[in-house]
Amino acid sequence: MANQTWTLPPTTDPYLFLKIHHNPNDTLTRNYEDPHTSPSSDPTLPISVLSKDLTINKSNQTSLRLFLPKKATLSNHNNKLLPLIVFFHGSGFIVQSAASTMFHDFCVEMAETVEAVVASVDYRLAPEHRLPAAYDDAMEALSLIRSCKDEWLTKYVDYSKCVLMGNSAGATIAYHAALRVVENVKDLEPLKIQGLIFRQPFFGGTQRTESQVRLENDPVFPLCVNDLMWELALPIGVDRDHEYSNLTAGNGVDEKYGKIKDQGWKVLVSMNGGDPLVDRNKELVKLMEEKGVEVVMDFEEEGYHGVEFFEESKAKNFIELVKGFVSSFAFWVQQLHTKKSNNVFFAMSIIVLYLNMYYGSIFKKGHANMCP
Hints:
The chain is an alpha/beta fold. Helix content is 37%, strand content 19%. The two termini are 29 Å apart.
């Protein structure tokens, strides 16, 4: 994954910052640079990960970009089934796509390093399609994955090892998808979610947090941009305390956290001290832990919002973190399938799970502590 360059816009106007124009008909003119990468499914090319697009909903122009490690297709791979990571890209619900080069490259590296099939969802953007459109698209994507007969899914994916993942607004989409799925997990069978990964999730509220006040003029994600993104994404006439934005709003959230606990889903929340969203990320961890959800918090003091897309070393560290997390529950599921249920086995399983996460790269030099 190549290093990206970041040039600070010489303005505090959020529209100029994002290089967008809001039109009277509630559409955006997007003038920013957004390099795209086309998928490549040709196994004869010198690439380590194959990719292709599947249509989710033709009328909504939504799609799924699949990433398959090429070595999984080789005859000497022993028909090993791979975990599935369903990924939702960030950018405040209003810009970019699964084909954006920065997200395509990230998914390529994640598929190769984690040894997983990655399904990156290209959902509808706001304000043309305000929330809950992206949340609805997430559910439609999961439904497609569950029933799709595409060989890359049916031949290479272990449907019992699925994780929902996203960065920034994409993490918020993954979060809301999880709250919906947990209400009736049987609807997704044979797809079974085992974990959730939220990287710098984008939550809001009218009450400012300390980190937002402290980082109001953050050069990467200033407060004015935060507010504009929510203004363009939320239904017209509501504020950031709406349930689509605010962690504590909406009915039954505590009950849904309880169901996540009962399902045994593991949750990884990754954050940086230099991100204005860090306080809300910590709030998510606290709320889930209070309801007994098994949450792992990855906190690194240094780093800003989206740092993994601009610093290659940060991307590699985070993807190694994802690998350790996915490997931990993949091990657990594999052992459960052997139907060994004595007390010694379960004790050893728990020990191996945490040793895997501890030594499997999480405490690499330069990476933050990962604290359960």
